Amino acid sequence: MKKIVLSALVAATFLGTSAFVAAPGTSANATRVEKAAAKTYKVQPQLSTLGWEGKAVTHGHNGTAQFTGGELMVNGNQLVGGTVTVDMTTVKTTDIKDAESNTKFMGHLNSDDFFSTAKFPTATFKITKVAYIKGAAATANNANITGDLTIKGKTNSITFPAKVGVKNGVAAASGTATVDRTKYDIKYGSKSFFEGIGDKAIYDDFTLSFNVIAK
């Protein structure tokens, strides 16, 4: 792939129970009350976007994937948890224009060298913590989101900055997450596992740029 970016939220990618994180000093009882008070907003796949980008020593590729559903948990005007699901069979590249080359590349991306989409057709991201950044500008990232990302049946915790907000019955989260593919058994072309591959190496990190809309 020579570059893969799937994030999360995205970012992707996501199926599980939502989580609520209490503010410092909040009692256990208050946490339960606030969690119970949280409202469920359904993710709108047709309004949400997910982009990926991966790089190799000499080149890179980028593309898109599609969310299939999920939910964001909202308390008042704050995002407090949620889950998102990505259909891995919808991953495609947008920078390879030649049809034959594109088909060959996507065949490799779907193979066991990379995402094994026949065996693992979905990826999920489950939010475990939303830490708001005090004093963040209205147009900037205002929270750090932590959650469990599952790809190819492997689950790891990742944290990334995001801009989140709730207004007029719509919850939104956007940002870019960096993912170490080797933690998800995607080791093809990695210098961390294969020595002497020189300029054929593919970097371990790829990025996921997401904009999740829920109502």
Automatic annotation (TrEMBL):
Does Heme appear among the keywords?
Answer: no
Q: Which domain of life is it from?
A: Bacteria
Pfam families per UniProt? YceI
Q: Does the keyword Signal apply?
A: yes
Q: Signal peptide span per the entry?
A: 1-22
Q: Where is the Lipid/polyisoprenoid-binding YceI-like domain?
A: 40-215
> InterPro entries, from UniProt?
Lipid/polyisoprenoid-bd_YceI, TTHA0802/YceI-like_sf
Per UniProt, which keywords does this protein have? Signal
Protein name (database record): YceI family protein
Organism field: Hymenobacter defluvii
Q: Which taxonomic lineage is given here? A: Bacteria, Pseudomonadati, Bacteroidota, Cytophagia, Cytophagales
